[in-house]
């Protein structure tokens, strides 16, 4: 299914029912479980203790890693526990959570106030980090780290391409004026020559709101992009907007472009007004929920409370998903907390599930290659992965796979292609990290051997010097004795 901008992609039914109602406030739960790790980076350490009272907005964690991002208390309360709980992650690993029981639910973090931020990037970066800002589009990259490199192009990503997800759509409709102000601020910090906001063509109300907010301004362009999945992917959007392709193995910053999700832009504006990131917008959708909608939710709120705010379950739900139906993660229960990277909860019924469960052999139809937005050959990658041929996987560009699942969607044999690629990428990453660890161990061993050899040589040289010194001393004593004896002899003769 060819189109403009990037190769492949799919036109999917939108299912944006959640965008039909204004943003609603999700009530605070009886208990917030706030994961320490909500971003791509290191987890850090808790800086509160069980039993301690916390204020709304208080910092709960600290860390020394440059990519560390702290977490904050969304409301006033008391820390009831700091414990390991399962994380909503494909690895099913556990992570540390700070559990807070709200005691004054009305004491939440105040909205921004005060004059606009006038400082430069050096003052801005620590404020953005300390406010806990990480990418809200799903990947969770630490925003201060991304902003540390100046760029020519700033692209505000409002292309919400996955079906059902509607939080950016509602944000654009309701907060467009603030977004444009904050975009100007981010652009100034980055010293970007060009700035545009990209919105998908089917999001007509969002487009109108942004057009109105921009009025006649020409410093930020409004770019209406094709409604084709995965248009909102960073690389695909860059190609569609700038015509530049991010080379494999390189980052957008290597070609001078930054893509920032629209919710993240607002979070940066909040951070520079002294407001930490303690809430986010989450859409709740699918045939399994009573009232689909977009909710303003405190981080750490259990998904069950959010589903309840959307009217609760409607029919037997076949699958609960965090994220969209294409790239989302299937969950086994609704007790996971909302985190910074969770933009959507889906409650899918039988009719909304993609495909059947039994995979058949590949019939080499080539449909997967036609829709791959990364220009890969999924059927080949699948074969190499199943055969354990890691070198061939690397040669055929596995790293460029964005796990968009377009190939799964069209595969008539229902092969679990993207899941296989995710697994293969993780295995390769583990292998590389093992190789790096082995290389480090080898270097450490070699430098220890060299050090021991150097020390042995130094010891030998010292001993040799000492021996020479002693020998010289003995020689001198002999000479002195001889001189003395000769002097005695001469004395006797006279
Ligand atoms: S779409 Fe499926 S069946 Fe067709 S070539 Fe790709 S993997 Fe094989
Ligand atoms: S999941 Fe990977 S291989 Fe499949 S279409 Fe997307 S980018 Fe291509």
From TrEMBL:
Pfam families referenced in this protein's UniProt entry, alphabetically? Complex1_51K (PF01512), Fer4_7 (PF12838), RnfC_N (PF13375), SLBB (PF10531)
Renumbered residue ranges of the record's region Disordered: 451-471
Main enzyme class: translocase
Q: Which domain of life is it from?
A: Bacteria
In what way does this protein cross or attach to the membrane? Peripheral membrane protein
Q: What positions does the domain 4Fe-4S ferredoxin-type occupy?
A: 352-382
Q: What is its cofactor?
A: [4Fe-4S] cluster
**Can you list the GO cellular component terms from the UniProt entry?**
plasma membrane
Give the binding site residues for [4Fe-4S] cluster 2. Answer: 372, 401, 404, 407
Where are the compositionally biased (Basic and acidic residues) regions? 451-467
Member of which family?
A: Belongs to the 4Fe4S bacterial-type ferredoxin family. RnfC subfamily.
Query: What does this gene product do?
Result: Part of a membrane-bound complex that couples electron transfer with translocation of ions across the membrane.
Subunit organization = The complex is composed of six subunits: RnfA, RnfB, RnfC, RnfD, RnfE and RnfG.
Question: What is the name listed in the Swiss-Prot or TrEMBL entry for this protein?
Answer: Ion-translocating oxidoreductase complex subunit C
């Amino acid at each position: 299914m060819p189109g403009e901008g990037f190769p492949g992609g799919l036109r999917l039914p939108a299912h944006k029912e959640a965008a039909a109602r204004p943003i609603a406030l999700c009530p605070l739960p009886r208990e917030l479980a706030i994961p320490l790790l909500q971003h791509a980076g290191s987890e850090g350490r808790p800086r509160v203790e069980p039993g301690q009272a916390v204020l709304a907005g208080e910092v709960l964690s600290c860390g020394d890693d440059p990519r560390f991002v702290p977490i904050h208390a969304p409301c006033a309360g008391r820390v009831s526990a700091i414990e390991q709980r399962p994380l909503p992650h494909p690895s099913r690993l556990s992570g540390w959570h700070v559990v807070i029981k709200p005691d004054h639910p009305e004491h939440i973090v105040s909205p921004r106030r005060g004059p606009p931020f006038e400082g430069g990037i050096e003052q801005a970066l620590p404020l953005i980090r300390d406010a806990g800002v990480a990418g809200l589009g799903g990947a969770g990259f630490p925003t201060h780290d991304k902003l540390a490199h100046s760029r020519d192009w700033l692209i505000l990503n409002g292309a919400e391409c996955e079906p059902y997800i509607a939080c950016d759509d509602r944000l654009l409709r309701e907060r467009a004026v603030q977004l444009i102000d904050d975009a100007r601020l981010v652009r100034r910090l980055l010293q970007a020559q060009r700035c545009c906001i990209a919105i998908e063509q089917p999001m007509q109300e969002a487009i109108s709101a942004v057009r109105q907010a921009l009025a006649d301004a020409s410093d930020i362009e409004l770019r209406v992009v094709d409604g084709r999945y995965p248009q909102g992917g960073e690389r695909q959007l860059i190609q569609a907007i700038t015509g530049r392709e991010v080379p494999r193995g390189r980052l957008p910053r290597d070609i001078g472009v930054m893509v920032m999700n629209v919710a993240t832009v607002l979070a940066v504006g909040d951070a520079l007004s002294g407001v930490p990131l303690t809430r986010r917008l989450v859409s709740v959708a699918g045939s399994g929920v009573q009232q689909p909608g977009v909710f303003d939710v405190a981080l750490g709120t259990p998904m069950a409370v959010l589903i309840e705010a959307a009217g609760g379950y409607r029919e037997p739900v076949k699958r609960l998903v965090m994220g969209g139906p294409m790239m989302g993660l299937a969950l086994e229960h609704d007790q996971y907390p909302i985190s910074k990277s969770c933009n959507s909860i889906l409650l899918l019924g039988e009719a909304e599930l993609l495909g059947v469960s039994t995979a058949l052999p590949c019939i080499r139809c080539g449909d997967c290659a036609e829709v791959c937005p990364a220009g890969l050959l999924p059927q080949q990658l699948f074969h190499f992965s199943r055969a354990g041929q890691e070198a061939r996987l690397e040669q055929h560009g596995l790293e460029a796979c964005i796990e968009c699942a377009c190939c799964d969607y069209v595969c008539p044999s229902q092969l679990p292609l993207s899941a296989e690629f995710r697994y293969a990428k993780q295995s390769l990453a583990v292998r590389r990290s093992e190789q790096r660890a082995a290389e480090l161990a080898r270097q450490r061993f070699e430098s220890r051997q060299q050090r021991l050899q150097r020390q042995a040589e130094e010891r030998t040289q010292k001993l040799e010097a000492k021996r020479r010194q002693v020998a010289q001393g003995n020689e001198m004593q002999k000479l002195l004795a001889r001189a003395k004896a000769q002097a005695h002899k001469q004395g006797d003769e006279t």
